[in-house]
Specification:
Length: about 100
């Protein structure tokens, strides 16, 4: 059985006057939305390079979203009655996380 789906991702970046860049990453699966958040703060002595703040904040939001997706998958695995594999079993069989 083939499974195909398309998920949409929107990334919003905001920089305020004190050098803080915030990222909001919205994953829309069609059935649910998950929001990842991240931020980066520029030290006052650092050069003002907005792209660096964007990259850090976006990367941190993606990392936050990834952790949420993995936790959701773990709950779903347990929800279908599959035991969570031990770390050694995870390498060999089942839904390895």
């Amino acid at each position: 059985m083939t499974h195909v789906s398309e998920w949409k991702v929107r990334l919003h970046l905001f920089e305020d006057d004190d050098g803080t860049t915030k990222a909001r990453l919205v994953l829309d699966t069609g059935a649910t939305q998950i929001v990842g958040r991240g931020s980066a703060h520029r030290h006052p002595a650092d050069a003002d390079v907005p792209e660096i703040g964007d990259e850090l904040a976006a990367g941190r939001a993606m990392n936050n979203l990834a952790r949420q997706l993995i936790r959701a998958a773990e709950r779903d695995i347990e929800g279908v009655g599959a035991a969570r594999p031990s770390s050694t079993q995870a390498q060999a069989i089942g839904w390895s996380l």
